[in-house]
TrEMBL record:
Protein name: 2-succinyl-6-hydroxy-2,4-cyclohexadiene-1-carboxylate synthase
The species this protein was found in: Lelliottia wanjuensis
Catalytic activity entry: 5-enolpyruvoyl-6-hydroxy-2-succinyl-cyclohex-3-ene-1-carboxylate = (1R,6R)-6-hydroxy-2-succinyl-cyclohexa-2,4-diene-1-carboxylate + pyruvate
Family note: Belongs to the AB hydrolase superfamily. MenH family.
Domain of life from the UniProt record: Bacteria
Subunit structure: Monomer.
Function in brief: Catalyzes a proton abstraction reaction that results in 2,5-elimination of pyruvate from 2-succinyl-5-enolpyruvyl-6-hydroxy-3-cyclohexene-1-carboxylate (SEPHCHC) and the formation of 2-succinyl-6-hydroxy-2,4-cyclohexadiene-1-carboxylate (SHCHC).
Length: 258
């Protein structure tokens, strides 16, 4: 079994860019950024419970990581960067900590490395269970209206919030709920130590108005990249600046290799 995806060709020999979206997104989420990086071959994936992969059920991060490995093998992708936002960033970090073959580097936007405190895990578990039940039982429009009122989305304008609610309400509530439970921060391991011990190049991207994830970025052994005029969803708020950061990262790393 492999994840649904969309491939774009690039210059032979350059590493692939494998894009992973956030919760309630799909393969389209990164395409405005990827379009500005045409030299690199690209793969945009739908995570379990989303888009073309919505019927796939997983029990945790290990399942998602194995699906990702199967998918890359099916495309014969042997040299690649993982680029992930939020949930996709957490999946990317977990996958990188499994020391997969062929991973050239890791770029994470607004992804949480994991909770350290047991009480925080308990609180997050209760919160995610409540949200999951709402996704199952209520109209998605009403749920997402409240979802995007959470503090992490405080930088959104009313127009941006309305646009996201409309877009995300096209999902399947039951499959979103299952994925939310399977990949809750409550069950994600704290990845800080494993990421610090890894030799894989690690770059962390966050919006200048995203105070929570700016603080988390400071805890990580990663190169940090601040995106101007952006909040938590930096690649949506300012895709040109995110694309420019990715281009710089890839250019410098390619130069180091050569």
């Amino acid at each position: 079994m492999i994840l649904a995806g969309e491939m774009r060709a690039g210059t032979p020999g350059l590493p692939w860019l494998v894009f992973l979206h956030g919760f309630s997104g799909d393969r389209r989420e990164w395409q405005r950024v990827g379009a500005q990086l045409p030299d690199h071959p690209q793969l945009y994936l739908d995570l379990p419970g989303h888009g073309g992969s919505q019927d796939m059920a997983v029990t945790g991060f290990s399942d998602v990581s194995q699906l990702l490995s199967n998918t890359l093998l099916s495309y014969n992708i042997l040299n690649y960067w993982l680029v992930g936002y939020s949930l996709g960033g957490r999946v990317a970090m977990f996958h990188a900590c499994q020391q997969p073959q062929g991973l050239a580097g890791l770029i994470v936007e607004g992804g949480h490395p994991g909770l350290r405190d047991a009480s925080e895990r308990e609180a997050r578990s209760r919160s995610d269970q409540r949200w999951a039940q709402r996704f199952r039982d209520e109209p998605l429009t009403s749920v997402f209206l409240e979802w995007y009122q959470q503090p992490v989305f405080a930088s959104l304008t009313d127009a941006q919030r309305d646009e996201l609610v409309t877009l995300r309400s096209q999902n399947n509530g039951a499959t979103l709920a299952a994925m939310l439970e399977a990949t809750s921060l409550a069950v994600q391991p704290d990845l800080r130590a494993a990421l610090s011990a890894s030799n894989i190049p690690f770059h962390y991207v966050y919006g200048e108005r995203d105070e929570k994830f700016a603080a988390l970025a400071a805890e990580l052994h990663a190169e940090r990249h601040v995106i101007p005029n952006a909040g938590h969803n930096a690649h949506r708020d300012n895709p040109a600046a995110v694309a420019a950061s990715l281009a710089q990262i890839l250019r410098l790393r390619t130069k180091d290799i050569l």
